[in-house]
Design goal:
This protein is α/β, with parallel strands linked by helices and about 475 residues long. The protein has two domains: about 190 residues, Aspartate Aminotransferase, domain 1 (Alpha-Beta Complex), CATH 3.90.1150; about 260 residues, Type I PLP-dependent aspartate aminotransferase-like (Major domain) (Aspartate Aminotransferase, domain 2), CATH 3.40.640.10. The chain contains 14 helices and 19 strands. Helix 10 crosses helix 13.
Amino acid sequence: MTKSPDYRKLFIGLDQQVPLLDGSTQRYINFDNAASTPSMQPVKDAIDRLLPYYSSVHRGTGFKSLLSTWAYDHAREVILDFVGADPKTHTVIFGKNTTEAVNKLAHRFPAREGRDVVLVSLMEHHSNDLPWRCANKVIHIGTRPNGSLDEDEFDRILKEYGKRIALVSISGASNVTGFINPIHRLAEKTHQIGAQIAVDCAQLAPHRKIKVGSLDDPAHLDYIFISGHKMYAPFGSGALIGRLDTFEQGDPDLCGGGQVEIVTLDDVVWTHPPEKDEAGSPNVVGAVALSAAILALDAIGMEKVAAHEVELTHYLLERLPAVDGLTIYGDRDPGSAASRLGVVPVNFEKYPHALVSAILGYEFGIGVRHGCFCAHPYMLSLLGVSKQEAEQVRDQVRSHDKRSVPGLVRISFGLYNETGEIDALLEALGRISRGEFKGEYTQGTVSGEYRPTDWSVDFERILFP
């Protein structure tokens, strides 16, 4: 067991029993935290305190409206403080998630004459790649064979395109391999050519301290994106923390109520940021949930959060090589645990990634994720898939057949995970490697997923007994 068992007391549902293929039940073990995390108990407590007072925010004079407005605005202050941003130069714009935040910036980022290039890396989640392709020339920074960012190529691209570059938008940490990028060093290089930098912190924020910094600091971050569902607050809120001077200019990407000073038949006067870019009634509960999670993480201390994950990552990487026929992707060195996140992708030589994931879930009660993790170009590179092979898979997918889509099995840690759970995972992987699984599985053509033959669960009965 790890030295920090009390962290589990901060979370909801960790002792939940789930049904297995053999008819028994098992305490669920979740190693799918890079996708979404469970809720912290302090988050639920904050929501429970808010709900009796919940009301519309802004312009209401009733007590409940005033309190809800304070809670919503206070959430912005908590977030700014958490990432070390100055409220005089940065603002917090709430939205559904990181994807919406990136899209918002992509639509609002000011076009400047001659600056038409946005740099993203090959390792990006689709959310920090596809939005930029809509209105910009996107250049992808390559990765090294192990999947880490090729900073030499980054330097070459900066030199080649120079003043044509408007923005660098890059992951703080990879959701596939856990590599942490040197964001402040990249920021300093970016600012030297007069461009700005945005950092997708969806993976980084729950695990490491983030510092936006002063605009006077050459290594500052101009924009960052975070998401509540990856920070133990899965209540539908994310945030774009960005420069005020950007959002003071131009028109919002979505138009409606709550973002104007006055509207006539001929004109509209937009209000000030951040409300200007938050059309409609906001997700007050989600914002309060996100701020409650941040306060809880702050109370623990991000250094302790990181230390706990380093211990888990080191423990896993030391023991995984003993599993026969298993390949680890990315950085396999346990000694590098402190410089990466606890996101470890693996594959068996003889079993498809989708089948391994299914067996872990149905027979061992262990949740992992498989596939491409919304980072297809990066995955194809990691797996050494040729262009011709990729085109063949693409054509199969267009024919509604996903059975041959390449991918990996991803193990990812949360603050509540323990070494005992890793032991259970290692035992399960060892049994799979020896063919010691009991189910008969059928792969769906359209989904590509494996399901046990003649086995089902009545989910409606569980949720609506």
